[in-house]
Amino acid sequence: MKRICAVLVAISFFAVVFSCEALSQDTTSPEYDSVKKTIEQSISWAIEKDFDALFRLWDDNMFHFWIFSNSLVVGLDSFKVYAEQWKDPEFRGTRFQFKDLRIVFSRSGDVAWYSCFLDDCGIFRGKESCFENVFQTGVLEKQDGRWVHTLMHGSYPIDKIPEHYVRRFYSKSINPK
Length: 177
Prior knowledge:
It contains five helices and six strands; from the N terminus they run αααββαββββα. By secondary structure, it is of the alpha+beta class. Residues 1-23 have low confidence and may be disordered.
């Protein structure tokens, strides 16, 4: 019985190690730099406000959900309508930083998924604000020789929601008047 348990523990250990290795990011992939650039462009477009570049980064059937419930967008045409808000001349991106960016490729090499913590800053009406440490995930697919987003999601872990959002969205439920 002890021998069977030891064998099962050993098999479980190697299965976990093998699975983690299989899912670790592959910075040696010939596509790594292209995927990383596409991910960076999905945020950096706002600095120059290059909407054509932004829309080229997305699949026609894309899915987007970014922090607030009104950011749920399905389909590129709907995303173009959603993006109208960023055309306000008083808005522009200023800087961004990806932290702990991890990119994993499918076995076939034509799909990649990623995760990171993102700082995304911009100016609106002369005041800079930043989404800091947003947990961002996404899926990209290589289509016709270029990488495009099929899915992007950004959220805060429940224990990391910035205090000003807690006050803004939950103050009435905490202190009903």
